[in-house]
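User: quick one, fold this
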Amino acid sequence: MLLLLIGSLTNAQNNVIPLYKGVAPGSENWTWNERELTAGNMKIVMDVSKPSLTAFLPSKPNGTAIIIAPGGAFHALAIEHEGAAVARWLSERGITAFVLKYRLVYQDPAHPENHIGALMGSGNFKKLDSINATVVPLAVQDGLTAVTYVRDNAATYKIDPNKIGFMGFSAGGTVTMSVVYSAKDENRPNFVAPIYAFAGAIIGTEVPKVKTPIFIAAATDDEFGFASHSIGIYQKWMEAKQPAELHLYERGKHGFGMNKQNLPTDKWIERFGDWLELQGLLK
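Assistant:
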C-alpha cells in the first residue's frame, strides 16, 4: 500500500510516514495529541508524541534526499518556514525532501509556567534547557530513525543511499549535529546543514572519519548568540579537515528560515543550492 501511495503522489506534501510501529520507544506513557496552531504569520506544531516524516516528492528525483528538522526550542516546530517551505524549494529542484516531526516537550496546561512562551518571555534559558534535557535524546533518536528509514527505502524513492543529508534549524540544528555525532554507519547522514544551530544541547562530539561535508548559516545579530555556535561547529569541521562552508550574515536575527526580510538572509537557500551543486548533489 505504501509503495502504491508513494508512486501516485508528486510535487506536494505527499504522505505522512510514522517513524515507529506502535508507540515510540522512550515515550510509552505519552498520551497527548499533536496540535497545530498559528502564531502571527508562523504555523507551529506542538506536543509531538508520534514522530513522523512528511515526504515531498519531486517529479524527477535526482537521487539526493534531505531530512529537514524545524526548530522551536524543543517545545514547538516552526513547521512551515523552517520545514515545508524548505522542502518545497528542494523538491522543485529534484531533491526528495522529508520534514521531520520529532518528539517535543509537552505543553502541560497544569504548568503554564513551563510553556515555551513563559520561558522565552522570562529569559530563563537555564530552566528551558533543564526541561528539554529529557526530550533531546528522544528527538535525536527520531532523527537517527529517520535516516535509517530513508536509507532502507532509498530504492522506493529513487534515492542514492549515499546521498542522504540532514539539515535543521535552531533546535533542529541541535538534532542535526547530534545525529551526525551519534550515528553508526547505517544511520549516518552523508552531509549536514545546521542553520543557526543551538550547540548547548548537542549530544556527541566526534566528527565522522568518513567524508561528511557541512553547510552552516547564521546571522551575526542572532539575539540568542548562536552565531558563535555556528563558528564553533565550523572550526571543529576545519580541524577535522572535513569540507566546510560557513555563511554569517550581518543581519537577519534568529529564526529567519524562509521568511522574507528584504535582507541577504532571504537568499541563504540559494547559497545552499550553490553548495549542493558544488557537492554534486544538485544538478
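User: anything notable?
Assistant: Residues 1-13 have pLDDT under 50 and may be disordered.
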